[in-house]
Amino acid sequence: MDRDQLDKTRREVLRWRILQTCNIGRPWPVSEDILHQTVAGADMPVTAFDVRKELDYLEGRGLVVIEGRGTPQWSSKLTRYGVDLAEYAIDCEPGIARPQKYW
Known about the structure:
Strand 2 and strand 3 form a beta hairpin. Helix 1 crosses helix 3 (48-60). This protein has 103 residues and is mainly α. It has one domain: Winged helix-like DNA-binding domain superfamily/Winged helix DNA-binding domain (Arc Repressor Mutant, subunit A), CATH 1.10.10.10. It has helices at 3-25, 32-39, 48-60, 80-86; strands spanning 30-31, 64-67, 75-78. The longest helix has 23 residues, at 3-25. It contains 4 helices and 3 strands, in the order αβααββα.
């Protein structure tokens, strides 16, 4: 796998992890600090900038709403579409590495 494909896969997995974390945190907003602690790991080092960049992407897709934009601390909540995507109620378009439903 070349570097570009590896970076793309990493971004898509990060987006899925963010959606999962926001789904678990419902109905409350999840702070970017909690997101960073939850999605980062030895298998995938993530910076705070990476989290913000992917939150911005997910907001552009209508899956999350960012609260606190323009402040030092962002938080995010899933939209109705974000919940449906996280719970496998709708199809997942390319750009998010949602695993296949096996149940």
